[in-house]
Recover the amino acids of this structure.
């Protein structure tokens, strides 16, 4: 029973002591006057009566009522019901306050209804003062308080005849029950009657309508955010003008939080004087009058709910975590169904007549029911995670948060995490965790209704039904008796407050009230307490937990197969089957990523522990430790799945003997995990174990033993059901299902609590003592355990502090609030060199002791260990730690003596011949660098990196070889290397080693072959070794002189060393060199190579140069030329003449001859018909050092004029011809950019010669003449006027000149017109050119068009050639826009300038750097996505530069094709000029798209014309600062883009381009060294003595290497090569049409870069058919990993595979294998024959032309022959359709099997003619009949014993045959044969005598052999 009211107080207005206008409250009277013992009088009531302040008011306001809540120091809430009314102020007060009265307005209106106009006017200036009646109670009966105070006021106002003292006395003495659903009628003695109902359960809050009102005011979403905010301890502030609303809202919010209790500041109505409370740092729920809204807005971290406006404002800095899904959305939808039941029916066509809307009170309960269900879902199964730490004298209970979150699958959930860590939940655990107590609605819900709630989830109507049932119960709790008798309480009359009150509220008689109170108290003492005894029961635990959302098992489903693998592996380990275990280990480690497998491992290992100990041998120990580490590495610090908990007993059980008396336990090898340094983990473990032992105390011995065996020894401790440490481990490991009769710790505790009151005092003492000592013994046990896992094996290293900052961080932390101060200081001290190493063990020991002491303090205090015991523990801990350190020292010492874990053997890399190791392997780890493939990224495949191995430095490369550190990958060798010369950047990094996570020094080396080595040096590599490595690398990368490069040093090993020549002595050295050159030249020219049809170069084995342009080629220029005609005129000095003879052999010269660009002849007899000639003017490199010795110039220009012309150009690179179109005879010229004066000279007026002409002017004139000479040397422009008459080209005609019906890309922007013109165009040059209006509107500013400003072309097709200007110029000069600024074109001249914007070399360099970064990032991306790669690729602008190059080149191609010549004159003439000129030739001339032609192109344009390879590649120390600029690589990338668009036009494969891209920077060959021919000659590289070549020498020239390799393998050959005649290519150049070259991104980790062919062809694969042990043949399957294996090698294309197979078979047959090229040519020839004989169906050419742009990207078509349809490779475009029908039938018959049959038996070899012949044996041997086969392909005559014989008996090589003549019968010849049937074949070795069966067949044989000879 409790008093209804504790105090009655009368508070009135009093003046403020400091005389300000505001008054203050004064307590006039309070009853009773002395405090109750159990409930002191609350302070500060006068503040709460008038929350907005005490103020006078000019008119009477109606009385107001509200209830404020005060909380005392014991967290007891006091309800203060305040009824306020106004009385006139007495005069004394009036005078005091007169001066302020005027200023006062109605601010103190209190939010009541507006004042009515007074019927009786009050005297002017009359003021009213508030007076308040206050009732203070600990009970919350608002309505009773309102009625009681109202009654007292009514008696006063209406002047009823009732003594106020009696009423107040009765009020104070009224006693009512607290709970239990009783009903009580009270009367205060004024003829009134009130009925008070008490709620059924005290624990459920009473909300009346407050929750429903809250939802009405704020809406669902807002209330949900407030709910989450209150639960996650944020500050919540309510604003309203009504005080009653504020207290209702606060009450409603608290009701929603049930079953949690709000334990922070709770002030539903906060007085104005206390507003500073709002800036408190702790969470709160406070209500404030809306008048103070401004003050509320200044608060930064307070969530403000405005009840009147219906808004909730959440500040930016506050994050309210939402409920976990799906609960959030489910709650939202059910709330809307409760609040708005009509929502479901709103769309119905026939809505039901009316729906019954619940009353507000009922709706309130329904809303609460929704939240009650929500809590039951959130906290379902919470009792399974309770730990009973103590039972007597009072229960001590702890909650295992981590296990709960892990089980519910909500580890990541912010909301639940915060709720569980909050104060409210701590209160929930201590209140509701108790196992024996009264239960309420929530307990039943969470125990019994879980299954129902889960089943109802997707059925809204069933959910609603459940909500209504719960709401009924909540309603019944508040209103147990529905038919309540009506209250009967008098109320004042209408507007009674306006009547002039007869008198102020009277002063009551204290004595009388006190007497009434005393009497009642005396009566109470005599009566027995009428208290309902609480019914206490054991709280049901409910079903075990389940995850909120059933998440799919993801990648590692708990498949039984995985668990089986784990079990098998462990049983193999313990049975000693180590090989089997080793095979399974990778699979096990992979499986251990899944939770079930980890549990399974713990459980399996438990089976092998006897008496807490298991001694293993070293191998077993290693296996077990590896598996444990793998399990633990994925554990978070919380260990929410209980894995670490399950392994903890095991790490102290498994051990191995190191030596007598020294044992090493597993814990010393599994310390590197964050979980061990987490205090929360240890606490949960400790409480779990304590619970197990406490439970064991109370179980019967038999029962106890049983439970232990069930749970499996120490693992099972703490798993006895609800409240166990890790229920997880029990149920899900499935070790043993909880038996029905096995009682959980909570059941045991409940039973004990029930019996407790019945026990004797001694027995109680004994139990308490037993429990305390159990806890104490566990604390000692855990101090030991913790020291095991926290002290590192090698304590001298202090590794602990450094790696596991966890311990350090906790140094200064109060239990779990972590600060960083300690960790920071530790890190600092580590970095300073001194001090840390000497600190030795004391640091480690100290840190561990402190950590353990903190732990011990916390758990012992919480679980009630006596202070003596605690002190004892503090003394013990340092000893335990010290003792353990000593043990570890012995273990550490012995473990060092174990043979160390074998570091992987250093794998020595394979070296090239001549490559030498400079630094032997330094052990390093190769780390991942942001390319995901190597790290097992999205491409799948295993994580090959990080790998452990060594780095080697050789004279040629930097090589890493090693093995992946990830044991799952297996023993794959990882190789990564790049040429030293390709190094572009080296920087030091400090990185973590993958194995022991130490910070180590590392190096990051980046190369321009798109390779990156990011290495961490092993500990054993000293810093000096690393420094030496860097220095040596630097020395090799930048040799002081070019002679120091690998290519040249390599040569010097084989050639006699040349004495270095002094630089100043250039002239003489040049002369001596020339003499050598002459000797060579004579030899060369004397040795003619007789060639048929085309010249084939001899083998170039004796020339050794690396890259492609500076090649001296001994290809004789033509057969007829005598040496004399090759030498220039006799006017040349003899030495020059000799130089000339060598120059003639250079690539340029050969190409000029091919193009018909002039011959070398004496100036007298110069062929006037030839427009151009080869000028030897630069033979001594006097005019231009960077040009070749022989140049093509117009016939009409004298050599002496060239010197002057050259002055106008940069670097003296004057315009020379480099190519001429065979069709339009337009020429392509190249030069350096013009000097400024040259530009002016070119365009100045011609008719104003100044009197004193300067030399510059004369140069300009010469230059002009020179260009005029070029123009006039073109046949079309050589007419009298020199102008062309082709006016007004229309773009339509431009489209029509394309030479064949299968044209590439038309130049039109309108695709329809293009196709039309393509179909109708006649072949050949343009026909009549009519004027057309089209071109008038086209822009003439080429520059802007090329710069991308002009109208864009469709799809990046080349710009229309008609746009230049209606009158075509004879010569277009492509120049740099910047250089040609301000130049006005002169209409009279015949050349036109095309200014374009070009990028400079530095832009190329910058772009390349970014491209490198994009392709090889260097560090793993934060979130790797294709988008990030594409973004960085775009930023590099590399593709934009490629686009510009292609665009300019296509423009030039168009101009040349239309008959205008073009001079490319950009920058210095050796970078972009070279790129453009080379691309133009490649696009225009099919010859350059062959292997030989491309070589010529590179030699001519890049090497001879002086592209500065050494400078751009920074080959020497001097070039180091300028850095690497990949101009040539950019050119190759352009070629690659063209190759992609026209795959059938190139004889070489994309691999060839990559090969050149790699080797032009590798410095392996001499070809690409130095900057010009001049420098190469000077160094003696260009023409070397041929005598050296006998030495077995590595190829010095890249071309020679390519040629040798091409003989062996088709790797450089493109099988799809099927060129069209005279086809000009016009590629699309838009960036969208360009692809990133895979040269930049691909990598083969199995063997390193595949471009050093000798190295890339790794060790031969062992033949798989027979194994050495004679076992069954292995499977031929191979796993091909992306990024590891070379796919083209692992899966060659079909043709390469067939060719390889053929070679293999031929070798098996014992025949010398045929060259692949011969076989391939033969197949193509056969293919041509059997093409399409009868012309039925579509001719192939039509098929082809319908394929757009790419034109037959593949050469395979299905062709229908007469017999069925046959698949044939139409690799050549010309298919002979003229053969006869019979041959066609034969072809069709053969063709299906052609491709296969050729490569099988000897029977089906190519037999051009066969039959029987008699052959005479050697001397004295008889004639024999043999089967002869004439093979035209192999060029031989073979014979066999008989027709079916497959073994060839002899071969006559037709190459040796000199003559075939009629023969005569010799001795022993067949008699019956006509003598005309005899014939002889005479070879260089002997004469063969043959005899045919008859004369015609003999004639046929002779004809066949003759024709074969003539063909050859």
């Amino acid at each position: 029973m409790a008093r209804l009211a504790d105090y009655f107080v009368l508070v009135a207005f009093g003046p403020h002591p400091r005389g300000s206008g505001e008054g203050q409250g004064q307590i006039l009277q309070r009853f009773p006057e002395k405090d109750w013992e159990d409930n002191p009088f609350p302070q500060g009531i006068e503040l709460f009566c008038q929350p907005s302040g005490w103020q006078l008011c000019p008119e009477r306001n109606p009385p107001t009522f509200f209830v404020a809540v005060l909380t005392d120091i014991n967290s007891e809430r006091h309800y203060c019901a305040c009824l306020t009314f106004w009385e006139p102020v007495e005069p004394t007060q009036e005078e005091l306050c007169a001066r302020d009265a005027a200023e006062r307005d109605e601010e103190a209106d209190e939010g009541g209804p507006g004042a009515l106009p007074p019927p009786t006017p009050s005297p002017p200036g009359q003021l009213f003062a508030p007076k308040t009646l206050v009732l203070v109670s600990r009970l919350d009966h608002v309505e009773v308080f309102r009625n009681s105070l109202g009654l007292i006021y009514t008696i006063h106002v209406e002047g009823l005849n009732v003594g106020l003292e009696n009423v107040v006395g009765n009020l104070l003495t009224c006693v009512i029950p607290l709970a239990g659903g009783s009903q009580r009628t009270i009367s205060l003695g004024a003829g009134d009657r009130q009925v008070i109902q008490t709620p059924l359960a005290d624990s459920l809050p009473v909300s009346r309508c407050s929750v429903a009102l809250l939802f009405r005011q704020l809406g669902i979403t807002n209330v949900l955010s407030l709910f989450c905010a209150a639960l996650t301890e944020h500050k919540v502030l309510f604003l309203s003008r009504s005080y009653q609303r504020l207290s209702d809202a606060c009450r409603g919010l608290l009701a929603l939080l049930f079953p949690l209790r709000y334990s922070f500041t709770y002030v539903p109505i906060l007085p104005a004087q206390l507003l500073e409370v709002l800036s408190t740092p702790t969470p709160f729920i406070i209500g404030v009058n809306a008048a103070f809204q401004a003050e509320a807005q200044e608060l930064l971290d307070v969530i403000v709910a405005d009840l009147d406006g219906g808004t909730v404002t959440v500040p930016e800095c506050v994050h309210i975590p939402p409920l976990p899904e799906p609960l959030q959305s489910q709650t939202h939808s059910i709330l809307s169904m409760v609040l708005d039941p009509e929502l479901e029916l709103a769309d119905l066509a026939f809505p039901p007549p009316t729906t019954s809307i619940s009353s507000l009170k009922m709706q309130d309960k329904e809303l609460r029911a929704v939240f009650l269900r929500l809590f039951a879902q959130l906290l379902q199964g919470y009792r399974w995670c309770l730990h009973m730490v103590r039972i007597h004298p009072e229960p001590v209970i702890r909650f295992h948060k981590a296990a709960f979150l892990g089980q519910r699958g909500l580890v990541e959930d912010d909301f639940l995490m915060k709720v569980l860590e909050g104060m409210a939940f701590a209160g929930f655990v201590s209140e509701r965790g108790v196992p024996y107590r009264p239960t309420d609605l929530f307990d039943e819900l969470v125990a019994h209704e879980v299954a129902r709630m889960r089943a109802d989830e997707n059925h809204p109507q069933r959910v609603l039904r459940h909500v209504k049932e719960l709401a009924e119960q909540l309603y019944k709790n508040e209103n147990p008796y529905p038919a309540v008798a009506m209250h009967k309480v008098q109320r004042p009359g209408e507007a009674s407050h306006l009547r002039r009150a007869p008198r102020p509220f009277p002063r009551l008689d204290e004595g009388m009230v006190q007497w009434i109170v005393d009497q009642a108290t005396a009566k109470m003492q005599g009566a027995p307490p009428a208290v309902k005894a609480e019914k206490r029961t054991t709280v049901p635990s409910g079903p075990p937990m389940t995850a909120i959302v059933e998440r799919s098992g993801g990648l590692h489903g708990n498949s039984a197969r995985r668990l089986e693998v784990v079990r098998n592996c462990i049983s193999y380990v313990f049975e000693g089957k180590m090989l089997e275990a080793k095979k399974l280990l990778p699979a096990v480690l992979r499986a251990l990523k899944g939770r079930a497998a980890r549990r399974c491992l713990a459980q399996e290992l438990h089976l092998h522990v006897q008496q807490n100990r298991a001694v293993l041998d070293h191998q077993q120990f290693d296996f077990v430790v590896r598996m444990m580490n793998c399990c633990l590495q994925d554990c978070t610090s919380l260990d929410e799945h209980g894995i670490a908990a399950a392994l903890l007993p095991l790490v102290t059980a498994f051990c191995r003997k190191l030596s007598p008396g020294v044992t090493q336990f597993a814990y010393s090898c599994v310390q590197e995990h964050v979980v061990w340094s987490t205090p929360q983990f240890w606490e949960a473990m400790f409480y779990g174990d304590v619970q197990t032992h406490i439970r064991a105390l109370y179980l019967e011995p038999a029962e106890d033993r049983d439970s232990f065996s069930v749970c499996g020894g120490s693992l099972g401790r703490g798993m006895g059901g609800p409240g166990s440490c890790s229920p997880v481990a029990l149920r899900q490991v499935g070790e043993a299902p909880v038996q029905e009769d096995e009682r959980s710790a909570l059941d045991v505790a409940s039973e004990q609590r029930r019996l407790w009151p019945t026990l004797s005092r001694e027995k109680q003492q004994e139990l308490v003592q037993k429990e305390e000592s159990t806890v104490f013994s566990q604390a000692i046990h855990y101090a030991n355990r913790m020291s095991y896992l926290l002290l590192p094996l090698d304590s001298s290293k202090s590794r602990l502090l450094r790696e596991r900052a966890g311990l350090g961080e906790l140094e200064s932390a109060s239990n779990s609030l972590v600060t960083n101060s300690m960790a920071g200081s530790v890190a600092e001290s580590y970095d300073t060199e001194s001090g840390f190493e000497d600190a030795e063990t004391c640091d480690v020991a100290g840190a561990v002791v402190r950590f353990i002491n903190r732990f011990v303090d916390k758990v012992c205090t919480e679980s009630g260990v006596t202070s003596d015991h605690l002190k004892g523990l503090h003394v013990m801990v340092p000893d335990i730690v010290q003792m353990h350190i000593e043990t570890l020292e012995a273990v550490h010492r012995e473990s060092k003596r174990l043979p160390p874990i074998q570091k992987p053997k250093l794998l020595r890399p394979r070296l090239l011949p001549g490559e030498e190791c400079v630094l032997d392997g330094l052990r390093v780890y190769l780390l991942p660098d942001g390319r995901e493939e190597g790290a097992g990224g999205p491409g799948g495949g295993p994580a090959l990196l990080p790998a452990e191995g060594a780095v080697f430095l050789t004279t040629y490369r930097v090589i890493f070889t090693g093995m992946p550190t990830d044991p799952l990958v297996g023993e794959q060798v990882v190789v990564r290397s790049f040429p030293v010369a390709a190094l572009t950047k080296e920087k030091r990094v400090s990185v973590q080693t993958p194995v022991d996570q130490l910070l180590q020094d590392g190096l990051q080396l980046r190369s321009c072959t798109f390779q990156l080595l990011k290495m961490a040096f092993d500990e054993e590599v000293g810093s000096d070794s690393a420094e030496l490595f860097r220095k040596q690398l630097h020395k090799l990368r930048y040799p002081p002189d070019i002679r120091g490069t690998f290519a040249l040093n390599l040569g010097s090993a084989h050639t006699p060393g040349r004495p270095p020549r002094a630089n100043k002595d250039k002239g003489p050295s040049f002369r001596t060199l020339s003499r050598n050159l002459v000797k060579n030249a004579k030899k060369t020219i004397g040795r003619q190579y007789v060639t048929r049809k085309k010249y084939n170069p001899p083998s170039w084995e004796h020339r050794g140069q690396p890259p492609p342009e500076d090649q001296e080629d001994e290809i004789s220029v033509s057969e007829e030329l005598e040496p004399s005609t090759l030498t220039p005129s006799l006017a040349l000095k003899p030495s020059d003449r000799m130089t000339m003879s060598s120059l003639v052999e250079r690539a340029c010269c050969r190409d000029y001859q091919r193009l018909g660009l002039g011959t070398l002849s004496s100036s007298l007899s110069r062929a006037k018909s030839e427009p151009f000639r080869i000028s030897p003017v630069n033979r001594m490199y006097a005019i231009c050092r960077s040009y070749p010795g022989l140049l093509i110039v117009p016939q009409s220009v004298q050599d002496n004029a060239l010197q002057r012309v050259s002055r106008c150009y940069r670097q003296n690179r004057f315009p020379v011809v480099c190519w001429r179109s065979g069709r339009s005879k337009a020429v392509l010229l190249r030069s350096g950019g013009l000097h400024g004066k040259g530009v002016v000279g070119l365009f100045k007026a011609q008719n104003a010669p100044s009197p004193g002409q300067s030399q510059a002017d004369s140069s300009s004139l010469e230059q002009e003449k020179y260009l005029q000479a070029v123009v006039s040397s073109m046949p079309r422009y050589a007419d009298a006027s020199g102008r062309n008459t082709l006016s007004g080209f229309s773009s339509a005609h431009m489209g029509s000149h394309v030479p064949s019906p299968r044209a590439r890309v038309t130049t039109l922007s309108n695709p329809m017109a293009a196709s039309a013109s393509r179909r109708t165009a006649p072949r050949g040059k343009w026909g009549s050119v009519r004027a057309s209006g089209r071109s008038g509107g086209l822009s003439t500013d080429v520059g802007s068009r090329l710069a991308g400003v002009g109208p864009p072309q469709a799809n990046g097709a080349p710009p229309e050639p008609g746009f230049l200007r209606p009158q075509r110029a004879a010569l277009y000069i492509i120049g740099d826009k910047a250089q040609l600024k301000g130049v006005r074109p002169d209409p009279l001249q015949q050349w036109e300038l095309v200014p374009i914007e070009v990028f400079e070399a530095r832009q190329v360099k910058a772009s390349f750097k970014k491209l490198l970064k994009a392709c090889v990032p260097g560090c793993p991306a934060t979130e790797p996505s294709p988008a990030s790669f594409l973004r960085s690729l775009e930023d590099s602008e590399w593709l934009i530069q490629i686009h510009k190059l292609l665009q300019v080149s296509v423009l030039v191609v168009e101009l040349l094709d239309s008959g205008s010549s073009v001079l490319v004159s950009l920058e210095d003439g050796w970078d972009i000029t070279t790129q453009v000129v080379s691309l133009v030739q490649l696009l225009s001339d099919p010859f350059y798209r062959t292997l030989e032609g491309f070589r010529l192109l590179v030699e001519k344009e890049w090497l001879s014309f002086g592209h500065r390879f050494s400078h751009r590649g920074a080959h020497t120390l001097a070039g180091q600062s300028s850095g690497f600029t990949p101009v040539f690589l950019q050119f190759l990338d352009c070629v690659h883009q063209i190759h992609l668009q026209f795959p059938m036009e190139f004889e070489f494969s994309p691999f060839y381009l990559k090969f050149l891209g790699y080797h032009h920077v590798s410095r392996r060959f001499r070809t690409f060294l130095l900057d010009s021919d001049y420098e190469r000659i000077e160094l003696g590289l260009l023409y070397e003595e041929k005598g050296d070549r006998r030495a077995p020498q590595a190829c010095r020239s890249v071309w020679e290497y390519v040629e040798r390799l091409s003989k062996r393998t088709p790797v450089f050959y493109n099988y799809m090569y099927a060129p069209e005649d005279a086809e000009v290519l016009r590629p699309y150049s838009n960036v969208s049409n360009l692809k990133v070259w895979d040269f930049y991104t691909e990598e083969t980790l199995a063997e390193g870069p595949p471009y050093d062919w000798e190295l890339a062809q790794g060790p031969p694969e062992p033949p798989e058919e027979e194994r050495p042990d004679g076992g069954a043949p292995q499977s031929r399957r191979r796993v091909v990993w992306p990024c590891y294996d070379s796919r083209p090698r692992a899966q060659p294309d079909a043709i390469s595979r067939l060719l390889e197979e053929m070679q293999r078979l031929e070798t098996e047959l014992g025949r010398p294998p045929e060259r692949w090229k011969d076989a391939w040519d033969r197949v193509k020839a056969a293919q041509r024959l059997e093409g399409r004989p009868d012309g039925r169906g579509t001719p192939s050419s039509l098929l082809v032309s319908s394929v757009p742009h790419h034109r037959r990207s593949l050469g395979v078509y299905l062709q229908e022959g007469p017999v069925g349809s046959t698949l044939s490779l139409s690799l050549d475009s010309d298919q002979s359709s003229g053969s006869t029908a019979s041959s066609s039938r034969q072809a069709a018959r053969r063709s299906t099997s052609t491709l296969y049959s050729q490569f099988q038996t000897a029977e089906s070899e190519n037999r051009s003619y066969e039959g029987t012949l008699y052959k005479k044996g050697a001397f004295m041997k008889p004639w024999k009949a043999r089967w002869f086969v004439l093979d035209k392909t192999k060029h031989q005559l073979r014979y066999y014993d008989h027709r079916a014989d497959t073994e060839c008996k002899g071969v006559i090589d037709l190459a040796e045959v000199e003559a075939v003549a009629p023969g005569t019968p010799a001795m022993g010849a067949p008699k019956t044969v006509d003598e005309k049937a005899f014939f002889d074949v005479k070879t260089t070795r002997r004469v063969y005598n043959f005899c045919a069966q008859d004369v015609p067949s003999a004639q046929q044989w002779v004809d066949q052999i003759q024709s074969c000879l003539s063909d050859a």
The radius of gyration is 51 Å. The mean pLDDT is 76. The chain has 62 helices and 44 strands. The longest strand covers residues 77-88.
